[in-house]
């Protein structure tokens, strides 16, 4: 009898897990959207540099082509004791092994008014909404004031795209930590601030947001910052499903797993991608999620066959942080490179990873790859190549940022 494997979520981790299992097994992927959203590039929606369709990979089609069942539904309950996951509309899905790959949810950390008045920055739909609001704001006369809460990777990438498309806007960037991009070398914080100098940008660090109103942001030090549009990039937190399934010790936490990705709380249940909390925590990155999906799939099969599980070993890859038309950072340890040409590397990663996860239907053909490349450009066809040419011309403007104290 074939083994029933259920995968919850078809993002980076769920999709790569599904691709890693043979069609001989009885695999069901249940995800609440038919695509895998390419989140590392969603900032580009703000400036219309990319269109939503370019960032939505056809996960459903890819999973079905791999010979598996795809169910478009939200899993609302997992019973690890009876080995059942329940879909909101599709009912019970029984499993012999389960892979939970649900990513995270937007976290507003209980800040008063943030859910109502700040726009989240967590999905293609979120960023398309922000783009629409930015365009509506630009069409209005008078001042255009945008507040970005969060000066991490998402906040800085959002700032770069707003400067690209709306260079006259007044922008306030608020970060709770002592500097922008707190997990990267200090040189990045300094470079971002220097690049912002010609623009109307104010950076606040060590500043905690206390409340968000419709037209202002209030900080813990008593400042009242007027805002026509507030963008929330406060980072993700664990899905409520993890807590209700008993996979986490508390609500909002990530699911603790062994180094094999098997849930500490439930043998036979594997957790992959952002949802998993390894004994030695790693950054929540798409490339880790893809590798974890592959590892979780292999270990789920090993568990069903009674073979020993293998540990997940995270690969070290450089980090790419886009800063609009001003450039892109490539961070390797304590060193970084900055310049417009590095943006080509980020685009290259997008094209390669997208082609690896969901190859064009006419695999290997130049036409199929061109369709995806052209589809990712702001304008179809040759006019869109201007951005590529801009990147190539900027190849000479490359700065090495050595480690600083
Ligand atoms: C703005 C932003 C920028 C980022 N930039 C980078 C970057 O530059 N480089 C990088 O490597 N990483 C980046 N990341 C992180 C990266 O996107 C994540 O690490 C990656 O998406 C995690 O993959 P995942 O499969 O765990 O989760 P996701 O990609 O979030 O996929 C989870 C899937 O599960 C589905 N799902 C959730 N709950 C349920 C449910 N109950 N039932 C059914 N389906 C469900 C979701 O709809 C989704 O399709 C960024 C993330 C964000 C938000």
Strand order of the largest sheet: 5-2-1-9-21
Number of strands: 26
What is the residue-mean pLDDT, rounded to a whole number? 92
So, CATH architecture of the largest domain? 3-Layer(bba) Sandwich
Which molecules are bound besides the chains? flavin-adenine dinucleotide
Question: How would a textbook summarize the main sheet?
Answer: 5 strands, parallel
Shape call: globular
Instruction: Fill in the CATH topology of the largest domain.
Output: FAD/NAD(P)-binding domain
Q: Point out poorly predicted stretches.
A: 379-384
- Strand-residue fraction? 15-25%
Task: Explain what the structure shows.
The N and C termini lie far apart (61 Å). Strand 6 and strand 7 (84-87) form a beta hairpin. Residues 379-384 have low confidence and may be disordered. The longest helix has 20 residues, at 286-305. The chain is globular, with a radius of gyration of 22 Å. Helix 1 (12-19) crosses helix 8. It has 405 residues and is of the alpha/beta class. The chain has helices at 12-19, 59-65, 114-117, 124-139, 153-165, 186-196, 240-244, 286-305, 342-357, 366-376, 385-393, and strands spanning 4-8, 26-31, 36-37, 56-57, 69-72, 75-79, 84-87, 91-94, 97-100, 104-106, 118-120, 145-149, 170-174, 201-204, 209-212, 216-219, 224-226, 229-232, 236-238, 255-256, 269-271, 276-277, 319-323, 327-332, 335-339, 399-401. Bound molecules: flavin-adenine dinucleotide. The site of flavin-adenine dinucleotide has 33 residues, from helix 1, strand 2, helix 5 and helix 8.
């Amino acid at each position: 009898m074939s083994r029933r494997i259920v995968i919850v979520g078809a993002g980076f981790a769920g999709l790569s897990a599904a691709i890693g299992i043979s069609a001989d097994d009885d695999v069901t992927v249940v995800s609440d959207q038919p695509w895998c959203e390419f989140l590392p590039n969603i900032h580009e929606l703000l400036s219309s540099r990319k269109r939503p369709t370019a960032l939505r990979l056809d996960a459903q089609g890819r999973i079905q082509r791999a010979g598996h069942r795809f169910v478009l539904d939200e899993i609302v309950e997992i019973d690890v004791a009876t080995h059942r996951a329940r879909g909101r509309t599709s009912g019970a899905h029984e499993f012999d092994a389960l892979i939970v790959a649900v990513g995270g949810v937007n976290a507003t950390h209980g800040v008063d008014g943030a859910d109502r008045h700040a726009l989240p920055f967590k999905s293609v739909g979120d960023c398309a909404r922000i783009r629409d609001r930015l365009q509506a704001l630009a069409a209005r006369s008078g001042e255009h004031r945008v507040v970005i809460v969060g000066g991490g990777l998402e906040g800085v990438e959002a700032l770069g795209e707003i400067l690209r498309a709306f260079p006259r806007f007044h922008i306030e960037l608020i970060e709770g930590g002592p500097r922008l991009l707190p997990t990267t070398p200090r040189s990045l914080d300094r470079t971002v601030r220097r690049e912002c100098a010609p623009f109307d940008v104010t950076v606040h660090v060590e500043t905690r947001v206390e409340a968000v109103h419709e037209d202002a942001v209030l900080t813990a030090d008593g400042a009242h910052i007027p805002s026509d549009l507030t963008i929330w990039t406060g980072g993700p937190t664990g899905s409520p499903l993890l807590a209700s399934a008993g996979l986490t010790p508390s609500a909002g936490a990530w699911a603790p797993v062994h180094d094999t990705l098997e849930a500490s709380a439930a043998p036979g249940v594997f957790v992959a991608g952002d949802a998993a909390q390894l004994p030695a925590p790693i950054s929540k990155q798409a490339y880790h999620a893809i590798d974890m999906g592959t590892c979780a799939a292999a270990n789920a099969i090993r568990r069903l066959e009674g073979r020993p599980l293998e540990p997940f070993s995270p690969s070290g890859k450089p980090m790419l942080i886009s800063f609009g038309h001003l450039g892109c950072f490539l961070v390797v340890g304590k060193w970084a490179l900055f310049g417009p040409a590095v943006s080509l590397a980020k685009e290259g990663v997008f094209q390669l990873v997208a082609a690896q996860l969901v190859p064009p239907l006419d695999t290997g053909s130049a036409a199929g790859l061109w369709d995806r490349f052209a589809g990712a450009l702001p304008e179809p066809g040759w006019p869109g190549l201007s951005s590529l040419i801009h990147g190539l011309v900027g190849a000479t403007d490359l700065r090495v940022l050595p480690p600083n104290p």
